[in-house]
Amino acid sequence: MIRVLLVDDQALMRAGFRMILDAEDDVEVVGEAGDGVEAVEQARRLRPDVVLMDVRMPRMDGVEATRRLAGPDVTTPVNVLVLTTFDLDEYVYGALRAGACGFLLKDAPPEDLVHAIRVCAAGDALIAPAVTKRLITEFAQRPRVAEPAGDATRLTTREQEVLQLMARGLSNAEIAGQLVVSDTTVKTHVGRVLSKLGLRDRVQAVVYAYEHRLVVPGD
């Protein structure tokens, strides 16, 4: 069973999420929280497989709660899937930098929500295509850097190609189709990219690619 903690300041929203998830045989809602403070407390106590996290909440917002549960300084991070009606760049970027394993908008279909929870519970990461487009728009407005910084020079040409395609929101299967290689080969390349760059998952890889200008919108 995938154990899920629901975090939203609106009881009606939590009830709706619970109804959707209760219909799934492999998902169990183990708790609810109405703000970031409660979310951190319950997540540390219950250790759910996935925390479904709202962004705008009283006392502590979802970005800060995510940072405390899944940030780079957390020894045993929790999988946090951020779900919000606000597709603003500041929230998208803040949540991804805070360590979220995924980001969906609340108008996503129920099946997309369930799929995202399963992906995050499996230790993978997911960014909704709409969110990827917002990231592209955000970084397109920033001054271009001539050369990428950091450890990107350690990547092979093929690994850089895989990273660039990940940053554009392609799945492993889509990358395999574009590069005409097997899914297993793509998974190997993804693993090497994460290892060489010291990144935890493909969400961090997407942020890294745009921060270091390895992907330039419009190319």
Summarize the structure.
With 219 residues, the chain is α/β, with parallel strands linked by helices.
Helical segment tally? 10
Q: CATH superfamily assignment of the largest domain? A: Response regulator
Reported by name, the CATH topology of the largest domain is Rossmann fold
Q: Could you give a short account of the major beta sheet?
A: 6 strands, parallel
Total discrete domains = 2
Tag the structure with descriptive keywords:
about 220 residues; alpha/beta; Arc Repressor Mutant, subunit A; 2 domains; six-stranded parallel beta sheet; NreC/VraR/RcsB-like_REC
What does it look like?
This protein is 50% helix and 13% strand. It has 10 helices and 6 strands, in the order βαβαβαβαβαβααααα. The radius of gyration is 17 Å and the shape is globular. The longest helix has 15 residues, at 183-197. Mean pLDDT is 82; it is low at 144-149. It has 2 domains: 2-137, Response regulator (Rossmann fold); 144-211, Orthogonal Bundle (Arc Repressor Mutant, subunit A), CATH 1.10.10.10.
Lay out the secondary structure.
Elements: E1 2-7, H1 11-22, E2 27-33, H2 36-46, E3 50-53, H3 62-70, E4 80-84, H4 89-97, E5 102-105, H5 110-121, E6 126-127, H6 129-140, H7 157-167, H8 172-179, H9 183-197, H10 202-211
Helix pairs in contact: 2-3, 3-4, 7-9, 7-10, 8-9
